[in-house]
């Protein structure tokens, strides 16, 4: 570990530079406010310069930049401000989903389920189990960050292994694997909404057919790839590098406290069983809304075959988010009633209220981000950049796989300085989705390439929201651990995840495999 603490090494100097530069960026709320203001100024300048482009869609004529600082533009700024906030695509999606997830989390269901899973698997599979559980924890949004890393550390310590190796394996699964899952989550809904909004600038009709499940096939297979890669990196690289554990710099309480490793109490097991039953029953009832002919949320059977009527249905577009919320809320309620963490309706309301209170920063961010996204669309700057950007890339002959790889590296670098996945995609989607559509690549592919690069580098950026919390967990076992040490531990995961995941995406592209239901690799217009 001592090598990871060198102050004057080249790699450490680079990490110190990244940390220094990242700290110079304003808060994301301020950043989007500045971007909105910059968009207004840019719209006025480009309009005065009479910048116009040919609309990429047929029979659309030329498009010019709208001046948002003239009389009509200023009127638009004030009259649209409330609507820009309310209609910000991720706002409703995230809040509705978190209402259900909040009950499941605060009732204790998610913590018990993750603990029960980790404790149930064989010792030789504990690393793979930790990584897998971390990846799957993205179903519960950010709950995995708080539950699994400290649990992984305690588990490894109890097994006589280095606790930081357990913490690292769990953190890698939770954060670097955030865009992989066997099921759809709020992340899919949030990013797809931003992609739909960006694609609609170029082709509204195509955008209407994009669903929350647009990357589902790819993220499903990704779970198994990342579990194997994380397992290999943990056992063959990270844990051997950490060496044997020396408890002299650890907190005595952390060493002696193994309560979290106690088996589930009978009441917790009972709660989990009935929660699982409620999920199964709820899922079956939800499926009846779409699988049977004439179901209320089924698509028009006349549009195509059986699968088309499901894929292009209200269930898959507008209905999936509330259904996800309900399928978290019901088992959370059942578990809470059985374990007595919920005793009446007031407890439920209190848990939902606390969940929404924790979303305060996101709501404030949504206000400034909503203004930027709306101004960017209204000004037509995104469309103009898309046309010019496509022409530039064509001039450089940067197409195909090199283009996608280049986009992924750009995303990875940006992620070092802007931690929020939704904030970055809100800023990048309006630019890159139209550009890549112009070059024949679908919004679904662009979104998946973004998700791969963003997730892989989450664990090495100090600006990621939960990075400081992970350091606090790690310092329980080594008081001297700082940002550089944690990054040096997590960097192998980031590199291997990025390379393996990128190769998988390239193979997917070469074979032309759909990324999800009705989600092709190529965009044909």
Automatic annotation (TrEMBL):
Record PANTHER family: P-AMINOBENZOYL GLUTAMATE TRANSPORTER, P-AMINOBENZOYL-GLUTAMATE TRANSPORT PROTEIN
Going by the UniProt record, its keywords in alphabetical order are: Membrane, Transmembrane, Transmembrane helix
Q: By what name is this protein known?
A: AbgT family transporter
Q: Which residues cross the membrane?
A: 29-49, 85-104, 116-137, 143-159, 164-184, 214-233, 271-292, 319-338, 358-377, 397-418, 425-443, 455-474, 486-511
């Amino acid at each position: 570990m001592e090598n990871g603490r060198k102050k004057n090494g080249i790699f450490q100097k680079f990490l110190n530079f990244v940390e220094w530069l990242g700290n110079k960026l304003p808060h994301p709320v301020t950043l989007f406010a500045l971007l909105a203001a910059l968009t207004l100024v840019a719209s006025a300048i480009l309009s005065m310069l009479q910048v116009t482009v040919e609309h990429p869609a047929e029979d659309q004529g030329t498009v010019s930049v709208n001046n948002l600082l003239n009389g009509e533009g200023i009127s638009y700024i004030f009259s649209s401000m409330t609507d820009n906030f309310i209609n910000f695509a991720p706002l409703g999606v995230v809040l509705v989903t978190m209402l259900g997830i909040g009950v499941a989390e605060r009732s204790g269901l998610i913590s018990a389920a993750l603990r029960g899973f980790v404790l149930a698997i064989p010792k030789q599979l504990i690393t793979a189990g930790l990584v897998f559980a971390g990846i799957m924890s993205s179903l519960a949004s950010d709950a995995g960050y708080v539950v699994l890393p400290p649990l992984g550390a305690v588990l490894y310590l109890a097994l006589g292994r280095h606790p930081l190796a357990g913490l690292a394996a769990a953190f890698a699964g939770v954060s670097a694997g955030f865009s992989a899952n066997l099921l759809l989550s709020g992340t899919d809904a949030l990013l797809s909404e931003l992609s739909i909004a960006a694609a609609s600038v170029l082709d509204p009709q195509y955008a209407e057919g994009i669903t929350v499940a647009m990357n589902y096939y790819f993220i499903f297979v990704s779970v198994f790839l990342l579990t194997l890669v994380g397992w290999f990196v943990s056992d063959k690289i990270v844990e051997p590098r950490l060496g044997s554990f020396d408890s002299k710099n650890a907190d005595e309480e952390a060493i002696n406290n193994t309560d979290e490793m106690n088996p589930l109490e009978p009441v917790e097991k009972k709660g989990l069983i009935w929660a699982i039953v409620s999920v199964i029953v709820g899922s079956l009832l939800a499926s009846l809304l779409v699988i049977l002919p004439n179901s209320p949320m089924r698509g028009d059977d006349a549009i195509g075959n059986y699968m088309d009527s499901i894929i292009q249905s209200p269930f898959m577009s507008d209905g999936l988010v509330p259904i996800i919320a309900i399928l978290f809320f019901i088992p959370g309620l059942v578990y809470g009633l059985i374990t007595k963490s919920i005793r009446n309706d007031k407890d439920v309301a209190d848990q939902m209220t606390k969940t929404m209170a924790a979303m305060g920063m996101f709501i404030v961010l949504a206000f400034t981000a909503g203004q930027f996204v709306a101004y960017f669309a209204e000004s037509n700057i995104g469309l103009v950049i898309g046309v010019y950007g496509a022409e530039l890339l064509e001039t450089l002959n940067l197409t195909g796989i090199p283009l996608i790889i280049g986009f992924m590296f750009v995303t990875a670098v940006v992620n070092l300085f802007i931690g929020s996945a939704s904030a970055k995609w809100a800023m990048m989607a309006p630019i890159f989705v139209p550009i890549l559509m112009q070059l024949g690549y679908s919004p679904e592919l662009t979104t998946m390439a973004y998700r791969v690069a963003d997730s892989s580098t989450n664990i090495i950026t100090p600006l990621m929201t939960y990075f400081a919390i992970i350091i606090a967990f790690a310092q329980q076992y080594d008081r001297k651990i700082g940002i550089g040490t944690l990054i040096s531990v997590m960097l192998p995961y980031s590199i291997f995840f990025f390379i393996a995941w990128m190769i998988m995406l390239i193979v997917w592209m070469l074979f032309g495999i759909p990324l999800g239901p009705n989600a092709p690799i190529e965009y044909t217009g």
